[in-house]
Amino acid sequence: MTTPLNASPSLAALRHAVLVSTKSMNTHRILERAGLRPTFPRVLVLEFFQAHAHEHLAAEAVYVRLNEDSRNMSLATVYRVLAQLVDGRLLSNVAFGDGRTVYELNDGNPHDHIVCNACGGVHEFFDAEIEARQQAVAEQFEFAVSGRRLVLFGLCVNCRKSSASVRRTIRK
Ligand SMILES: [Zn+2]
Ligand SMILES: [Zn+2]
């Protein structure tokens, strides 16, 4: 390419296009390494989770948020792609007992979840002792661990405060 710099329509736009395509190239490679053909919906959903790395989202929420950016993807496609990305271990899914299954980016860092039954808030935690105990149990059973689920349920501090104030009001 010998286009002189001053003849370029917009160097910034060009640089942006290069950045975007580099990002998609990486996503393509990640998908291929996971044994998945990099189709448009797969690239889109994976990039969405890469941009929201610490969020736990139900399929419906992913569907709504993808279509906010005027990308037309049916809920059925979202479900299908989510399942494929979980199979490829690029995403993880966590069932929260209340019938809710959420998806998150699988960044390879093990962690557990604590979930509020009232507001649905999700927090992540990592506890080295729990980790070591799980490892010890697996070894005891001569188990090669391929997955793990530990979810604590209850009421978060804010919901406990508001339910306490509701009780006080009722008592009056
Ligand atoms: Zn709560
Ligand atoms: Zn998580």
TrEMBL record:
Task: Please name the CDD domains in this protein's record.
Answer: Fur_like
Does the record bear Signal in its keywords? Answer: no
Under SUPFAM superfamilies, the record lists:
Winged helix' DNA-binding domain
Query: Where does this one sit in the cell?
Result: Cytoplasm
Q: Which InterPro entries match?
A: FUR, Fur_C, WH-like_DNA-bd_sf, WH_DNA-bd_sf
> What keywords does the record list, in alphabetical order?
Cytoplasm, DNA-binding, Metal-binding, Repressor, Transcription, Transcription regulation, Zinc
Q: What is its main location?
A: cytoplasm
Q: Per UniProt, what is one Pfam family of this protein? A: FUR
Gene3D superfamilies linked = 3.30.1490.190, Winged helix-like DNA-binding domain superfamily/Winged helix DNA-binding domain
- Subunit comment: Homodimer.
Q: Which protein family is named in the record? A: Belongs to the Fur family.
UniProt-recorded name of the protein: Ferric uptake regulation protein
